[in-house]
Design brief:
285 residues, mainly alpha, Rhopdopsin 7-helix transmembrane proteins, two-stranded antiparallel sheet, 10 helices, 2 strands, transmembrane, Yro2-like_7TM
């Protein structure tokens, strides 16, 4: 028996019945390849975590979790799961429907805030700015999800709100956070990482408008577009980020959290050595 005789039967096992615009066989093959890249990157980055001090793993842990979610969501999409058939108002015949993969948005809802958090920690901006950037990334993705599930032209209202949130996020990560990073002496590294991320982020509104927004490109074509962006933002940028951590002083960046936890223990009196007893037993003369 040839163990390689079985091909990709995901679309046979999980067919998109009654959907006009759906994922093709070649599209599923491509998604399996992206899934493999995510899984390999996840395992590789997880392994690297044990080669560094615990207090220096903050970026490793954040990005590892993002890659794990990406692995699961791409597995679902490659298996032709995690989608809903939504009627479309543009560039398809009346009553036609399209596969809208909500698994894709779940991936972004984790990966986008993960990079916003990582850049915030690296730059040294305040926690209020970091929380604001995380909120903006969630708002951006959720409004795009709402737009994808809206069957009328009112979807472009959600798209406008989401794109505006991205503009604020871009200004924060490229301007305010950069100024903070320069005070820590890592301006060059921060500009490189934030520049790559924002270059990729600017392409997501374009990809969405062409695919889930207007149906100008099909499901398979959109996954090629989004897949390339996700691979560059997920596995590739995560690896670049982690490689650059080797030359950073985590204490200077104030992100050596295990060390800080010990400091808090000292403040609370949890790390104090027990005081030896001074009681001396006496005996009657």
């Amino acid at each position: 028996m040839d163990i390689f005789s079985r091909g990709n039967d995901a679309l046979t096992v999980n067919p998109a019945v009654g959907v006009t615009e759906s994922l093709s066989q070649h599209g599923s093959d491509w998604l399996w390849a992206v899934t493999a890249l995510y899984i390999v990157s996840f395992i590789g980055l997880l392994s690297v975590c044990f080669a560094v001090r615990e207090s220096d793993r903050v970026f490793h842990y954040i990005l590892t979790m993002a890659l794990l979610v990406g692995s699961v969501t791409y597995f679902a999409q490659a298996s032709d799961l995690g989608w809903t058939a939504i009627d479309q108002a543009e560039h398809l015949a009346s009553g036609a429907s399209r596969q809208i993969f909500f698994a894709k948005y779940i991936n972004w809802a984790i990966s986008f805030p993960s990079f916003a958090l990582s850049l915030g920690l690296l730059s040294g901006v305040s926690w209020t700015t970091i929380i604001c950037n995380i909120f903006l990334s969630w708002f951006w993705i959720l409004t795009y999800l709402a737009a994808a599930y809206t069957i009328t032209d009112y979807k472009w209202g959600f798209f406008a709100f989401g794109t505006f949130a991205w503009l604020i996020l871009a200004m924060s990560t490229l301007n305010e956070s950069r100024e903070s990073a320069s005070l820590l002496g890592i301006n060059r590294d921060y500009v490189l990482l934030s520049g790559i991320l924002n270059l990729l982020w600017i392409l997501y509104p374009i990809a969405f408008a062409l695919s889930d927004g207007s149906n100008l490109i099909g499901v398979t074509s959109s996954f090629i577009f989004f897949g390339v962006l996700d691979v560059l933002m997920g596995p590739v940028l995560s690896i670049i980020f982690v490689l650059m951590t080797r030359k950073w002083d985590f204490k200077k960046l104030n992100v050596a959290f295990s060390d800080h936890r010990g400091d808090r223990g000292d403040l609370l009196g949890l790390n104090k050595e027990p005081v030896p007893s001074t009681n001396v037993a006496t005996s009657n003369a």
